[in-house]
Every structure is written in structure tokens, then in C-alpha cells.
Specification:
The protein has about 350 residues and is an alpha/beta fold. About 40% of the residues lie in helices and about 15% in strands.
Length: about 350
């Protein structure tokens, strides 16, 4: 009888983790070990016989090693992916995203476990390539005092260490680089601290009838990718049929959804009147221009565009992103309406 695959997800309560756990439990027979500091996004799965929940910090070495020893595939998804925190607390970003996750990679090497590493599109930095190629594009970071790059630099170095472990010591790995994954559950829509990422931050502003702040005019472009498409690719990477994804690097993004931040704001304001809660204050919401230094702090720097090369991802995995930006925003709005309905019922 074939052994059931055990998948270990660190950061299981986070944006990627919650959607991945949901899909695994829905569409596969895999067993899931899920670890995170909180479990609020996983509560719907409590009682599922194929899910084991652990309250855990990835700096808890005893717990981490115990869980890794039981897994077949390890996904270290726990980390800080919020630009505001790159500036305000760069050392914490380094300690979590680099140091703690590197220890997990080393555990996988020691225990001969396959690791699927969540890199980032930010490793390409300010590359001038029209498409960022996972094997050919130069990785271009800004100067040291631009603390925004501590996240990208840490991720890039782990990428390189994993590659070296794979080449020289036999580590089984796949590296994937998310390109602006969006959808429900990315951040708290009620958070007004400036920490939420762009879609949640804009939706929160519309919900409250506040200001949508376009940093430096919002001309920077991103290739937005809806979370369901992203999880489709991740499932195929975990399956790894005929070991097609072994020791490979994949961009997971949708180059057809390349839009400016300003275009995203305008599209959200166009869609908002069709959705309860959001329609109440959308007429009061105003788009304003703000400087990056004022919004993020003096350590901020940004890239003009991010467009992924995905032909190898499509070929190897038989994957193709399907959801355009308008559809993605509609799905995200509808999901937040459901959340707000539940909040109303619980009052």
C-alpha cells in the first residue's frame, strides 16, 4: 500500500499557508502538519483527521526539528513580507526570514527531507530585464542604507545556499518566486497602521471612506496573480510527478496581469459600488499622491516593474494562470463581504 504523503507547512495561518492547507485538504489525500503562532484562519478545518495543528514559533528549535522529522515535504512559509517592517524593524526581518528559515533548510538537509522554499519576486530587485528569468536575470539590489532590500537580500542568499546544498550535498528542493499574489486573507482589512499590503490597504481605505495613498504616484507596475492560480502551481510542485520540479526554480506569476498601482486603485473604486459595506463610503474615498519617504520611511526604494518569465513553469508543471485582475479583485471583494457579514452576525 502506498504511503500517504505528509506535508509540513510552517506559517500555515498566513496568506499562502491558509489557502494551501485548504486546497490540500479539499483535493488530495495528503496529511498536513500545520504550524503557526495563530490558528484563526484554520479554524474551519478543526476536527479534520488529516490535519494536525501546532502552536509554534519557527525559532522554537525543538518543535521545528520534531515536525521536520515527521514530514516528507517541508514548506517554510513563515516570515515577514511587509515593506513597512523592512524599514522599521530590519533586524527582525533578518532574524525570521533568513536566520530561522535557514535552520529549517539545514534540518531538511540533515534529515533528508524535500524542501519547497518560498523565495520572492523581490530578489530580482531593480533588474532592467523586460521579463525576470529565474536562471538568467541579474539580481540588482540598492545601496545598504536602503533597508527595503534586507528582505530581498536575505531571501536571495537562502536561494543560493539551497542551490549549493542541492548541488554539493544532495538536498532535494524546489524554489518558487511569488509575483504579487493577491486574494482574500492577505492582511487584516481593519488594520490602519500602514502595514497591510496594497490590495488590503486600498480595500480598507474604501471601507472607511478614507484616502487611497499612491506612493510616488502609483506608476510602478506589478504582475498581480490570484491566489487560486498560485496554489494550483504549488500543488503541482508538491506532487512533483516524475521529479519534474526537483532542483528547479520557478516564477509563479501572471504577466498578463501587469498593471500599475494607480490602475489597481482606480479599478477597485470602479468595482466597490457593487459590494455591500464597500459601497457605503466609496464616494467619500479619494486617491491622493504621497512620497515614498513619508509613507514608508527614508530607507525605502522600489523597482519600476516586475514581469515574470513563466515559460518553464508552464512547461514543467502544465500550469497556466487563468484569473485576470478584474476577476481577482471581484473575488477578493466578495470574500471580504462574507467576512464582514460574519462580523456583523457575531456582534
Amino acid at each position: 500500500m502506498k504511503k500517504r504523503k505528509t506535508i509540513l507547512v510552517f506559517g500555515a495561518n498566513g496568506f499562502i499557508g491558509q489557502h494551501l492547507v485548504r486546497r490540500i485538504l479539499k483535493d488530495t489525500d495528503w496529511y498536513v502538519l500545520a504550524s503557526d503562532l495563530k490558528q484563526n484562519h484554520l479554524k474551519e478545518h478543526r476536527g479534520n483527521s488529516r490535519l494536525e495543528l501546532h502552536d509554534g514559533n519557527i525559532r522554537n528549535r525543538k518543535l521545528v526539528r520534531k515536525l521536520v522529522s515527521r514530514a516528507d515535504v517541508v514548506l517554510p512559509l513563515a516570515g515577514i513580507a511587509t515593506p513597512k517592517i523592512y524599514i522599521t524593524n530590519p533586524l527582525l526581518v533578518h532574524e525570521i526570514d533568513f536566520e530561522a528559515n535557514l535552520e529549517i533548510v539545514r534540518d531538511c538537509l540533515e534529515m533528508k527531507k524535500r524542501v519547497i522554499w518560498a523565495s520572492t519576486s523581490e530578489v530580482y530587485g531593480m533588474s532592467t530585464d523586460k521579463e525576470f528569468h529565474p536562471l538568467e536575470s541579474n539580481l540588482v539590489m540598492g545601496p545598504i542604507h536602503k533597508m527595503r532590500w534586507i528582505y530581498a537580500a536575505g531571501k536571495s542568499l537562502v536561494d543560493r545556499i539551497i542551490f549549493a546544498y542541492g548541488r554539493d550535498r544532495g538536498l532535494e528542493y524546489t524554489i518558487f518566486r511569488p509575483f504579487n499574489w493577491i486574494g482574500y486573507g492577505q492582511d487584516d482589512i481593519h488594520d490602519t497602521s500602514g502595514k497591510p499590503r496594497v490590495i488590503t490597504q486600498f480595500l480598507g481605505s474604501i471601507l472607511r471612506g478614507g484616502k487611497i495613498e499612491l506612493v510616488d504616484g502609483g506608476s510602478n507596475r506589478r504582475s498581480f496573480t490570484y491566489i487560486d492560480d498560485c496554489i494550483d502551481a504549488l500543488i503541482k510542485i508538491i506532487e512533483n510527478k516524475k521529479r519534474i520540479a526537483s532542483k528547479k526554480i520557478y516564477n509563479i506569476g501572471n504577466p498578463k496581469n501587469n498593471h500599475s498601482i494607480k490602475e489597481v486603485a482606480e479599478m477597485l473604486l470602479e468595482l466597490a459600488p457593487s459590494y455591500p459595506y464597500f459601497k457605503d463610503h466609496c464616494k467619500e474615498t479619494r486617491i491622493v499622491i504621497t512620497g515614498s519617504g513619508k509613507h514608508y520611511g527614508e530607507g525605502y526604494q522600489d523597482m519600476i516593474n516586475r514581469t515574470p518569465y513563466i515559460r518553464n513553469t508552464k512547461k514543467d508543471l502544465g500550469w497556466n494562470p487563468k484569473v485576470n485582475l478584474r476577476q481577482a479583485l471581484k473575488k477578493t471583494l466578495a470574500a471580504y463581504v462574507e467576512e464582514l457579514n460574519q462580523e456583523e452576525k457575531s456582534k
